[in-house]
Amino acid sequence: MWTWFHKLASPPHFYRTATVLEPWLFWPALILLGIGLYGGLIVAPADYMQGDGYRIIYVHVPSSYLSMFSYVTMAVASAIGLIWRMKLAFCVAVACAPIGAAFTFLSLVTGAIWGQPMWGTWWVWDPRLTSQLILFFLYLGYMFLRQALAETRQADRASGVLAVVGVVNIPIIHFSVEWWNSLHQPASLSKLEAPSIAADMLWPLLVMILAYQLLMLALLMTGIRAQVLEREKNARWVGELIGREGRGA
Amino acid sequence: MISAFLLVLRRELTVAVRRWSDLVMPLMFFIIVCTLFPLAVGQDIEMLNNIGPGAIWVAALLATLLSLNSLFRDDFEDGTLEQLALDKEPLSFMLLAKTIAHWLVTELPLVVLSPVLVLAFGMPVDAIPGLVLTLLAGTPALSLIGSVGAALTAGLRQASGLLALLLLPLTVPVLIFGARAADLAASGQSIAGPLYLLGGISVLALTLAPFATAAAVRVSLD
Predict the structure, then answer these.
(1) Does the residue A191 lie in any domain?
(2) pLDDT over 90 at A74, yes or no
(3) Is the pLDDT of residue A105 over 90?
(4) Residue A203 maps to a domain
(5) Do residues B29 and B66 touch, judged by C-beta distance below 8 A?
(6) Is the pLDDT of residue A188 over 50?
(7) Minimum-distance CB partner of A154 among B168, B173, B219
(8) Which residues of B182-211 are buried (b: 16+ CB within 10 A; e: fewer)?
(9) Mutating which of B166, B198, B222 best tests the A interface, going by the most A Cβ atoms within 10 A?
(10) First to last CA, chain A
(11) Could you please report the per-residue DSSP string of B108-166?
């Protein structure tokens, strides 16, 4: 039963698995993205209060969700790497960082674009916005720390410690930011009308979330493959792989 | 183990006293940052009163950040950290001694000095005990969280910008609760709520941060 786990720890096997999975994640993601966008932009009715402006949630909500999902994945992978000394876990963690940072950025930007007409301002110091901004800085810190450390092994473990410390801190940060806001002034601006959303507005959103999730995993596979190749560039199987593909082309 | 702990603590304090310029620098920085606020926003006493508690906390955070740069640098370069890591005593415990020394040497003077700044910002005298309490409860967390970041960047030159990027997001809760409690103290209200939370964060940091610092030091020594 553990053989698959041991196999997972071998770079060539890991690389092949990622290569096989990648199209199976990417194409469904693209198809679902098409369905979700069609449903969200054309089928779903306009909101009676916000008009068509609310439609940005179809890109905003999935990005926000994935910004957090990527961080948790990164931290879990880092913890696995630190505890079991599994080098490949760090490949996953490293591949997560830019994807997560991009989703965080996307979520901040789409939020600001939505906020301008709806709230009348690009930015408010709302707890959700503030914690999202802090999350963005955490991603940047992770990536810059890796940049600063030249040796891969050291960069892996140092950034791993940072990711784990960050994940312990995130609930505290989130809670403190929420508390900070609630004492200052209650938010006079309403957020998404959470569960009371009409069914034909909801299904495109769920499809979009699924599409983004698959897209994130597909991008993760690409990142992992690049990481494995980079780290194993002197290994024989990489040479054989490149040689074979070179001949095939 | 206790005697080794005390030995490290005493060594750190002796080094700090012998090199008193390093000791005074964060303190000067703290005062300078506090001076910049009135210069930048004008000398309207009402306004200074309002921003005072927050300004003092921001200055304390920045001064801590400045001092953290050199927390492990010298010991990393002359091999002291390596000796500590090779020692049979647990590394996390020895590093805790260093962190406590850092708190005594840089944070405690800030706390002692803060009443003067309270008055300089035109806040009422009654606010002094409250503000001092918030700094006492919150600065240990700053030192402890900071030690993790300092350990991660110990082997790097020119790491101050990176250290700020790593640490500022992690210290946001301390800043929020600290400034909030100081704000309440300045307006003469009960500071119990945020003060307890600050203390809670400090205790949590005390229990977890030494292990993270030790792990980070071992990575840096690699």
Answers:
(1) no
(2) yes
(3) yes
(4) yes
(5) yes
(6) no
(7) B219
(8) bbbbbeeeebeebbebbbebbebbbebbbb
(9) B166
(10) 38
(11) HHHHHHHHHHHHHTT--TTHHHHHHHHHHHHHHHHHHHHHHHHHHTTT-SS-HHHHHHH
What whole-number distance in Å separates Cα of residue A111 and Cα of residue A129? 8
Question: How many domains, chain A?
Answer: 1
Question: DSSP string spanning A32-94?
Answer: HHHHHHHIIIIISPPBTTTBGGGGGHHHHHHHHHHHHHHHHHHHHHHHHHHHH--HHHHHHHH
ipTM: 0.85
A49 lies in some domain: yes
B216 in Cβ contact with A149 (< 8 Å) = no
- Tokens representing residue A23 in the block: 């199209």
Expressed as residue numbers, the domain containing A228 is 17-186+199-244
Polymer length of chain B: 222
| % of chain A surpassing 70 pLDDT | 86
Residue A207, class by beta-carbon neighbours within 10 Å (0-12 exposed, 13-18 middle, 19+ buried)?
buried
Q: Which two tokens stand for residue B107?
A: 């944070």
Q: What are phi and psi of A86, to 5 degrees?
A: -95, 110
Q: Do A141 and B215 touch (CB under 8 A)?
A: no
**pLDDT greater at residue A47 or residue B174:** B174
Yes or no, beta carbons of A161 and B156 under 8 Å apart: no
Task: Please tell me the predicted confidence (pLDDT) of residue A249.
Answer: 43
Give just the sign of the alpha carbon dihedral A169, A140, A94, A236: negative
* CA–CA dist A230, B76 (Å, integer): 30
pLDDT of residue B181: 87
Distance, CA of B56 to CA of A185 (rounded, Å): 22
Establish if A7 belongs to a structural domain: no
Q: Is the confidence at residue B158, as pLDDT, over 90?
A: no
Identity of residue A30: L
**Which residues of chain B have a CB within 8 Å of the CB of A135?**
169
